């Protein structure tokens, strides 16, 4: 496997050895977005299906074959594409609910999101854990935007105001409230039309050099 580069950085209080995963932004191969889209579709179809034994056996065989095909292409984190490529929908991750139409200025970011059958909790509503997942992603990316040094989620406070439907286009808005030293305070809301589904407050703390 390829190795991530090691770098030495100054933290202003003298040099400290800091492990930096210097990404060599991997080029996105033709067809990669379609592969991740196929994974999303698969997740939704499996979540929605009640297959018989014959179909289960056929799908298991094909999925196992696909996993075997991918095994030789595994890479260390610094050289992966999924979850890291901003040019791909959902950054190329099938974990995060699909986000698109993102527009942003320095203090407000808006976009659309759709939870699939894969994210279903019960009664047509998204699983409660998927909503902080969305907020962590959209708040976290905004907190780390504009060339800021990396910050990590310290807390997310989520208020579930009303049910969040799956298989419906929703809207989110995120606000970069303020920065205090290493602390970045964010808020956000998820809406189904006029109806507020969930609200969030989050703190993201900038990592010190060398901090894991
Ligand atoms: C581009 C990427 C987009 C995706 C982003 C996704 C982000 C993520 O999901 S990150 C993964 C989830 N988060 C984690 O794993 C974090 C685990 N925790 C940690 O690493 C550490 O606790 C960390 C970095 C948050 C803070 O630790 P540390 O740097 O030691 O903080 P510390 O020096 O004690 O505190 C700094 C300040 O933050 C405050 N603070 C830290 N944690 C909290 C907290 N949970 N609640 C309130 N305040 C806090 C402290 O009180 C302190 O404030 P002040 O400067 O006013 O005294």
Describe the protein:
- The protein is of the alpha+beta class.
- Residues 1-22 have low confidence and may be disordered.
- The protein starts with 6 loop residues before the first strand and ends in a 6-residue tail after the last strand.
- It is built from three helices and ten strands; from the N terminus they run E-E-H-H-E-E-E-E-H-E-E-E-E.
- The chain has two domains: 1-85, no CATH class; 96-212, Hotdog Thioesterase (Thiol Ester Dehydrase, Chain A), CATH 3.10.129.
- The strands form three sheets. Strands 3-4-8-9-10-7 form a six-stranded antiparallel beta sheet, with helices on one face. A two-stranded antiparallel ribbon has the order 1-2. It has a two-stranded antiparallel sheet with strand order 5-6.
- The chain has helices at residues 32-48, 53-70, 130-143, and strands at 7-10, 15-18, 98-104, 108-114, 120-122, 125-126, 151-160, 169-180, 183-192, 195-206.
- Octanoyl-coenzyme A binds at residues 136-137, 140-141, 144, 152-155, 181-183, 203, 205, 207-208, 211.
- Octanoyl-coenzyme A is lined by residues 136-137, 140-141, 144, 152-155, 181-183, 203, 205, 207-208, 211.
């Amino acid at each position: 496997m390829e190795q991530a580069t090691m770098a030495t950085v100054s933290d202003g209080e003298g040099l400290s050895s800091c492990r930096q995963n210097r990404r060599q932004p991997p080029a996105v191969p033709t067809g990669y977005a379609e592969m991740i889209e196929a994974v999303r579709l698969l997740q939704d179809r499996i979540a929605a299906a009640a297959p018989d034994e014959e179909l289960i056996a056929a799908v298991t065989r094909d999925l196992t074959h696909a996993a075997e095909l991918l095994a030789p292409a595994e890479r260390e984190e610094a050289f992966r594409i999924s979850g890291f490529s901003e040019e791909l929908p959902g950054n190329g991750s099938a974990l995060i609910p699909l986000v698109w139409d993102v527009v942003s200025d320095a203090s407000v970011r808006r976009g659309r999101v759709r939870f699939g059958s894969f994210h279903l909790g019960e009664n047509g509503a998204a699983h409660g854990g998927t909503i902080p997942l969305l907020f962590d992603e959209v708040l976290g990316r905004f907190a780390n935007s504009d060339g800021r040094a990396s910050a990590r989620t310290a807390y997310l406070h989520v208020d579930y105001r009303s049910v969040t439907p799956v298989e419906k286009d929703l809207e989110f808005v995120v606000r970069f409230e303020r920065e205090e030293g290493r602390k970045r305070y964010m808020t956000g809301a998820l809406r189904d039309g006029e109806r507020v589904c969930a609200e969030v407050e989050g703190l993201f703390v900038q990592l010190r050099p060398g901090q894991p």
